[in-house]
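Quick one, tokens below. Sequence please?
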């Protein structure tokens, strides 16, 4: 049985007792005319006036009991709704002696109640509701964690986000902020004339980015499908079709490891802008950050853990190769010699395959010596072409992709580039990706012949970018783990009954 411990059984018995009294422990059609915060705002003036109560005003409220103390013939309680906490006072004389006696026995912390009454200020100066009627709206079967320690176990908080939200009000604030961020991003792009679109979540070919996909099966079609790694190739098809500025905010899925900045299911915005280049994208992205900070009333110098991130200045721009030298302190004279790079990495406790391309070796150097040092917003530009299979080659240097990534607080936040619109070049790039996959690279792109054919109709000069919503929320909410900004993050399954018992005890 799910509700098997003694405290849950006791509450089930109380629920039955309420039914025997003719009180439905799971009522419907419960209405209220104000929230806790609206009530407090409306009657705050009573605290400073000579008259401390207003019996001419009656309000109906509902909320979860978070505190309850009986004192003989009266009781104090605090109820919580989405907006906040409100103190209640109720007595035997007001709600009736028989019902008051049953309330003392059958209603407890965790239950959701519906009350009506008038505003008054207690002797200690707290604005409260003097209750005239009190009814149970929902009987809670599972007790809340005891108030003193609260809910602290991190595993339980992630697995039972609903309980986390009940016990930790700041968690709700983080997700309200997330909602505002997503809404603000949407409005920003709409105001710029971008069209929001939706593209498939199940793809016939795993593509759009280098990552290992999740695989599923479509029974009706009798074919294998892949949860999308990225919407890129579909969004660019729309630009080919004539939509010159499009964006999509939605989920991507990558069958990879989990850590403080990675969840296998995550949210991104991708946007594509015809007749613009990657420099325009960088300018637009800084404008987006300025807009977000203003809309959310956040400072231009933002705390993130022990760091302070400065958004007040133009974001720094530096080439990929220069970042290795200037920021990573990699000796300039080894960068054209694969053997010397392999040796340099080995001397720094990093063993790599000596057959890696020069671009892949640069990537190893960057990950090891540069990335974590990029605290203030920094655009790393002009990536090696080998690690940029969908980006346009530079006309000045064919070994370089016209691409950037934005790093903040030592983490990649966005990736953008001038889109490759040469169908023959794209076909050759796909062939090289297939070679890499056959050589054991599980993250290499598949060949997408339909996309190559679409390019044959002509993709106008276009720049595109993907920006991670989860990592952005982490930055703006000052959260160090991606699990703290995803309502229901991926978790390892509980393997056996002892684990489940342990989880319940930790609550």
């Amino acid at each position: 049985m799910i509700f098997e411990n003694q405290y849950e059984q006791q509450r089930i018995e109380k629920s039955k007792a309420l039914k025997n009294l003719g009180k439905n422990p799971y009522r419907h059609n419960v209405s209220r005319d104000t929230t806790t915060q609206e009530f407090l705002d409306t009657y705050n003036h009573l605290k400073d006036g000579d008259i401390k109560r207003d019996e001419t005003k009656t309000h109906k409220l509902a909320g979860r009991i978070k505190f309850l103390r009986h004192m003989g013939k009266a009781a104090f309680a605090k109820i919580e709704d989405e907006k906040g906490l409100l103190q209640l006072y109720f007595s035997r004389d007001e709600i009736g002696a028989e019902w008051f006696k049953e309330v003392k026995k059958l209603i407890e912390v965790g239950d959701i109640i519906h009350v009506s009454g008038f505003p008054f200020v207690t002797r200690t100066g707290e604005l409260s509701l003097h209750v005239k009627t009190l009814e149970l709206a929902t009987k809670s079967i599972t007790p809340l964690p005891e108030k003193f320690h609260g809910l602290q176990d991190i595993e339980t908080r992630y697995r039972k986000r609903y309980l986390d939200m009940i016990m930790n009000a700041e968690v709700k604030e983080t997700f309200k902020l997330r909602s505002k961020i997503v809404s603000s991003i949407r409005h920003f792009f709409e105001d710029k004339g971008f069209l929001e679109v939706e593209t498939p979540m199940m793809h016939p070919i795993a593509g759009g980015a280098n990552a290992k996909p999740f695989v599923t099966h479509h029974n009706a079609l009798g074919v294998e499908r892949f949860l999308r790694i990225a919407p890129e190739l579909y969004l660019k098809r729309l630009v080919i079709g004539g939509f010159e500025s499009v964006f999509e905010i939605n989920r991507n899925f990558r069958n990879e490891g989990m850590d403080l900045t990675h969840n296998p299911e995550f949210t991104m915005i991708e946007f594509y802008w015809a007749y613009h280049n990657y420099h325009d994208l960088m300018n637009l992205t800084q404008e987006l950050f300025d807009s977000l900070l203003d809309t959310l009333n956040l400072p231009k110098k933002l705390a993130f853990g022990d760091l302070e991130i400065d958004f007040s200045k133009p974001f720094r721009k530096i080439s990929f190769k220069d970042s290795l030298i200037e920021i990573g302190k990699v000796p300039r004279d080894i960068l054209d010699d694969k053997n010397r790079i392999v040796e340099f990495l080995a001397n720094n406790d990093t063993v790599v395959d000596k057959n890696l391309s020069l671009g892949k070796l640069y990537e190893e150097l960057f990950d090891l010596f540069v990335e974590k040092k990029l605290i203030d917003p920094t655009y790393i530009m002009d990536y090696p072409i080998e690690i940029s299979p969908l980006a346009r080659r530079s006309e000045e240097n064919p070994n370089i992709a016209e691409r950037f990534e934005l790093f903040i607080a030592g983490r990649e936040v966005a990736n953008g580039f001038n889109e490759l619109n040469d169908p023959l070049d794209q076909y050759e790039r796909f062939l090289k990706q297939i070679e890499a996959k056959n050589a054991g690279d599980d993250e290499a792109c598949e060949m997408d012949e339909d996309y190559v054919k679409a390019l044959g109709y002509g993709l106008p000069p276009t720049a595109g970018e993907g920006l991670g919503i989860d990592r952005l929320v982490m930055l703006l909410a000052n959260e160090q783990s991606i699990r703290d900004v995803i309502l229901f993050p991926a978790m390892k399954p509980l393997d056996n009954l002892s684990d489940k018992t342990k989880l319940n005890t930790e609550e």
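The first strand starts at residue 59 and ends at 71. The domain at 167-313+406-484 is CATH 3.30.930.10 (BirA Bifunctional Protein; domain 2).
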